[in-house]
Design brief:
Elements: H1 2-18, H2 32-40, H3 51-59, H4 71-81, E1 99-101, H5 102-108, E2 115-121, E3 124-132, E4 135-139, E5 168-171, E6 179-183, H6 188-201, E7 211-213, H7 241-244
Parallel strand pairs: 1-7
Antiparallel strand pairs: 2-3, 2-6, 3-4, 4-5
Length: 259
């Protein structure tokens, strides 16, 4: 699941810096922004979204190193790590009780076709990239890869960052409901268009995966945009979760759905 979270976020960063129409081509010189994105995910503890940082940040979510992460825990971890990421200038919003609040998102950033991806458990820990009729097309990261690091010229051998195996298919009825939906909006108008699309195509359904509301529900606690804690560290340093993450509120792995 940690790798799925990395894949989802990496896709969002590709959209952020290179655009939705950009495609990776094997053994071709890549843009410098692409190389910098890769460096965010290297398996080193000084990389912002490394497996080390995600696992360590999970300790603040009550997850021991090596313990299984659910989709919500991964989302919470990425939300907190993004606070230390100054280059990408990314705000990560995680909905509460499967309810997306427009007012809260605009308070967070006001600058958020819109899907990033879906991370979930069907098959276990895979990334759903597209769909065709009632079938989902997914990528499975469960492949042993060679460790890579930054080369002398500052680039990264990117072969292991891409699924070179063919995408697989599954019927949507076989989808495990324990999933995280990811959407990336670069500007406020993108977010407004996404809201209009959701209201038109999704909210008319009787059984929907999430709700979209304009105002913050009155019975909820006040919304407080996440803020970087006062610590002497950056996203490029290994975060000591037992001390530096005390200011973060813990959230449960699972919420109750009302359908």
């Amino acid at each position: 699941m940690l790798r799925c979270g990395q894949m989802m976020l990496a896709q969002a960063l590709i959209c952020r810096h290179l655009g939705r129409d950009w495609n990776w081509e094997k053994q071709k010189e890549q843009p410098k922004e692409y190389q910098r994105i890769l460096q965010c995910f290297l398996d080193r503890k000084d990389c912002c979204y490394s497996i080390h940082q995600m696992a360590q940040m999970g300790v603040g979510e009550g997850k021991s190193i090596g313990e299984w992460f659910g989709p919500n825990t991964v989302a919470q971890v990425l939300k907190k790590l993004a606070l230390f990421d100054e280059w990408n200038s990314l705000a990560v919003y995680v909905s509460m009780d499967n309810t997306v609040v427009i007012e809260d998102i605009k308070k967070m950033c006001c600058v958020l076709p819109l899907s990033a991806d879906t991370a979930g458990e069907s098959p276990p820990d895979s990334l759903i990239a597209s769909n065709q009729s009632n079938e989902l097309i997914f990528l499975d990261p469960h492949t042993t890869q060679t460790f890579v690091d930054t080369e002398e010229n500052g680039t990264v051998d990117d072969q292991t960052f891409h699924c070179l195996q063919s995408p697989q298919r599954m019927n949507i009825l076989n989808l495990d409901p324990s999933v995280a939906l990811g959407f990336f909006c670069k500007e406020e108008k993108d977010f407004d268009n996404w809201c209009s699309l959701v209201q038109k195509e999704i909210l008319k359904e009787n059984l929907r995966m999430f709700e979209l509301v304009q105002k913050h529900p009155s019975h909820w606690p006040p919304f407080v945009p996440p803020a970087k804690p006062e610590v002497t560290t950056t996203g490029a340093e290994f975060i000591d979760s037992t001390e530096q993450l005390e200011e973060f509120d813990l959230e449960e792995d699972f919420e109750i759905l009302s359908v």
